[in-house]
Design brief:
The complex is a heterodimer of chains A (113) and B (110).
Chain A (H helix, E strand, L loop, with lengths): L4 E3 L2 E4 L5 E6 L6 E7 L6 E7 L2 E5 L7 E4 L6 E5 L8 E8 L6 E3 L3 E5 L1
Parallel strand pairs in A: 2-11
Antiparallel strand pairs in A: 1-3, 3-8, 4-5, 4-9, 5-6, 7-8, 9-10, 9-11
Chain B lengths: L4 E3 L2 E5 L4 E6 L6 E7 L5 E8 L4 E4 L2 E6 L4 E6 L8 E8 L11 E6 L1
Parallel strand pairs in B: 2-10
Antiparallel strand pairs in B: 1-3, 3-8, 4-5, 4-9, 6-7, 7-8, 9-10
The chains are: A mainly beta (113), B mainly beta (110).
């Protein structure tokens, strides 16, 4: 068990570009979560999956954000037409089910210039 | 919202002292988790306490849960400089969604 893996760890992009992040959950974990965190704030919920089904997407997210988990294993988070306000740490977590521990990856730090 | 609200927002203590952080939430929960985060890093899972449990221990950590008051506390005993970090509680609703508050920033001075 290698833990939750996120790639890349750091991403610098120009405003207006699209970016895609990947999250590999712990093997056999059915739940997968995405969060966003800015400096000095707690993690903000973005979306979560049960296997390949997206259960909820935050109303705070604009249509520029989309997430997928096509085979119920890894997940991708795409941000289209990035804005400077998208600069943040993007965190992924996974859990076996809705009642057990959720473990986080090290995050992807996005900087939009 | 049922997010966890931590109190205090910041706590500064001397090495060897105990640190207590509190968390309140608003709706019924499935369980509650506590996490630690060092600056710029990911969240490290500390402990999970279920809604039918009142107290749980793990090493120098003690977590309590009072569902009637919708509150939880995290006690770190005999603190060390390495405990310096932000601490978050994350209540989990019946659907399994974790919602975080702003956290408690703990500073342990050697």
């Amino acid at each position: 068990d290698t833990g939750v893996s996120q790639d890349p760890r750091h991403k610098i992009t120009k405003r207006g570009q699209n970016v895609t992040f990947r999250c590999d959950p712990i093997s056999e974990h059915n739940r997968l979560y995405w969060y966003r965190q800015t400096l000095g704030q707690g993690p903000e919920f973005l979306t979560y999956f049960q296997n390949e089904a997206q259960l909820e997407k935050s109303r705070l997210l604009s249509d520029r954000f989309s997430a997928e988990r096509p085979k119920g294993s890894f997940s991708t988070l795409e941000i289209q037409r990035t804005e400077q306000g998208d600069s943040a740490m993007y965190l992924c977590a996974s859990s076996l089910d809705r009642v057990n521990e959720a473990f986080f990856g090290q995050g992807t730090r996005l900087t939009v210039v | 919202s049922q997010q966890g609200e931590e109190d205090p927002q910041a706590l500064s203590i001397q090495e060897g002292e105990n640190a207590t952080m509190n968390c309140s939430y608003k709706t019924s929960i499935n369980n509650l988790q506590w996490y630690r985060q060092n600056s710029g890093r990911g969240l490290v899972h500390l402990i999970l306490i279920r809604s039918n449990e009142r107290e749980k221990h793990s090493g120098r950590l003690r977590v309590t849960l009072d569902t009637s008051k919708k509150s939880s506390s995290l006690l770190i005993t005999a603190s060390r400089a390495a405990d310096t970090a932000s601490y978050f509680c994350a209540p989990i609703n019946q659907g399994g969604k974790l919602i975080f508050g702003q956290g408690t920033e703990l500073s342990v001075k050697p």
